[in-house]
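>> received
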Amino acid sequence: MHVPIYELSPMAGISARVEQAGVGLIPGYPYSAPYEDLQLKKP
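>> returned
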């Protein structure tokens, strides 16, 4: 018998090209959101 052990942890990527990281914008939501409002810096 096998029992898979895993943890559902939020993954968030932050880069120098992102103007504002979306982590923590929605209270109680552990993921990076909202993606619709994500803006990148101009090169």
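>> The mean pLDDT is 78.
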